[in-house]
From TrEMBL:
Recorded coiled-coil stretches: none
Assigned GO CC terms: cytosol
Protein name per its UniProtKB record: guanylate kinase
UniProt-listed Pfam families: Guanylate_kin
NCBIfam families for this protein: guanyl_kin
PROSITE patterns: GUANYLATE_KINASE_2
Domain Guanylate kinase-like: 10-202
Gene3D superfamilies: Guanylate Kinase phosphate binding domain, P-loop containing nucleotide triphosphate hydrolases
EC category name: transferase
Origin organism lineage: Eukaryota, Sar, Alveolata, Ciliophora, Intramacronucleata
Classification via InterPro entries: GK/Ca_channel_bsu, Guanylate_kin-like_dom, Guanylate_kinase, P-loop_NTPase
GO MF term (any one): ATP binding
Length: 209
């Protein structure tokens, strides 16, 4: 029987970590068909002003906005956090998070440390969050993972590795993260991450398949 119990008590989870650390690996794992915890979680859909890539659907991969729409929403204070990257805006609209909270699910936000710090400064109780950071044991491990993923050119790889260094220093110093999860061996990491979230952090009871 399905034991998923929607609840308003679950604070959203802000998941940070350098590119290649394993954020997608973890979220795909906990939300996979085989996961007994999949119904507790939903992924927040970010907004962006960049053009959709082939196959990307509005409202699924991103909420695609014009620059004017995006700026108007920022002016109204409707973004929890936003940032400009390579000339495009990216951000988390409050409604994207609200929709998931209303469903009684744990909203997962995959954002950078700067965005996480912006969210943590929100004084509204509605958007109080938990913060966790995922990293590899060393920068060399991170470089190797990104190389193996095959998504990077030499140039983007170098950018990501140098950004990772800064991101990890900022994360260690800012005092925001209650938990640092080290992605060394995949299974061990996933087991630890699931145990932490479903135990200590949210106290979830697995649904039976
Ligand atoms: N423990 C591990 N050992 C080896 N490879 C791993 C491990 N964890 C994840 N990977 C692989 O490393 C690559 C990077 O992981 P992933 O895509 O989950 O990172 P990410 O943090 O989501 O990155 P981005 O922010 O760029 O989306 C992927 O190809 C993934 O399959």
């Amino acid at each position: 029987m399905d034991q998923f119990k929607p609840s308003r008590k679950y604070l959203p989870l802000v998941l940070c970590g350098p590119s290649g650390a394993g954020k997608s690996t973890f979220t795909e794992h906990i939300m996979s068909q085989a996961s007994p915890f999949k119904e507790f979680f939903a992924f927040s859909v970010s907004s962006t002003t960049r053009q959709p890539r082939p196959g990307e659907k509005d409202g699924v991969h991103y909420h695609f906005n014009t620059r004017e729409q995006f700026e108007e929403e920022v002016a109204k204070g409707n973004f929890l956090e936003h940032n400009e990257v390579h000339g495009n805006f990216y951000g988390t609209h409050k409604d994207a998070v609200r929709d998931i909270i209303k469903q009684g699910k744990i909203c997962i936000l995959d954002i950078d440390v700067k965005g996480a710090l912006d969210i943590s400064k929100q004084t509204v109780k509605e958007f109080k969050c938990n913060f966790a950071f995922i990293q590899t044991p060393t920068i060399d491990d991170l470089r190797a993972r990104l190389e193996a993923r095959g998504t990077e050119t030499e140039e983007t790889l170098a950018k990501r590795v140098s950004a990772a260094d800064k991101e990890m220093k900022m994360a260690a110093e800012c005092g925001l993260f209650a938990k640092f999860l080290i992605n060394d061996e995949k299974k061990r990491f996933l087991d630890e991450a699931v145990a932490y979230l479903t135990g200590e952090l949210y106290n979830l009871k697995p649904s039976h398949q």
